[in-house]
Design brief:
By secondary structure, the protein is mainly beta. 10% of the residues lie in helices and 37% in strands. The chain is globular.
Length: 150
């Protein structure tokens, strides 16, 4: 008798129901996830204002990519410096946050950077975006997961 197939994971929210090429807040399912940066590059994507140049971050061993919001890029720059080549191979911890800046997206779920196991301690990052009120975020020193026991 053939073994029955494993049950499919059932979506819990809209982002899980329709996954695509890019990570969305709902895919994280309220969990913090640590990933290793593979690459950061520019790509033209269709947006509300037509075709726009966006920063795209890829991760080692993952198909989904992250459209890198400026707030997230500022946080990564503060942790690892302004040279993108230095970001490659660094670990970042993502979580589901809320859009902080005023506008139609304020309060909506988004992916934010929680921190990294590679920073020596928690660090406060000032964020100043054009035409927006300045605010601060804290990058947390996260603990790397121990290797699985054999």
């Amino acid at each position: 008798m053939a073994a029955s197939p494993a049950p499919l994971a059932q979506p819990k929210n809209y982002d899980q129901l329709y996954p695509g090429r890019f990570l969305k807040a709902g895919i994280l399912d309220g969990k913090k996830v640590t990933l290793t940066i593979a690459e950061v590059k520019h790509e033209k994507l269709e947006g509300e204002k037509g075709e726009e140049l966006k920063a795209i971050m890829s991760f080692v061993g993952k198909e989904m990519q992250l459209v890198l919001a400026k707030t997230n890029a500022i946080c990564i720059k503060a942790m690892f410096g302004p040279t993108l080549a230095n970001w490659k191979g660094k670990k970042v911890t993502l979580y589901e946050g809320k859009v902080e800046v005023a506008g139609p997206m304020k309060g909506q779920p988004c992916i934010r950077i929680w921190g990294s196991p590679e920073i020596p301690q928690d660090m406060t990052i000032p964020i100043k975006l054009p035409k927006r009120k300045a605010f601060e975020v804290v990058m947390h020193k996260t603990e790397p997961k121990p290797a699985p026991q054999e």
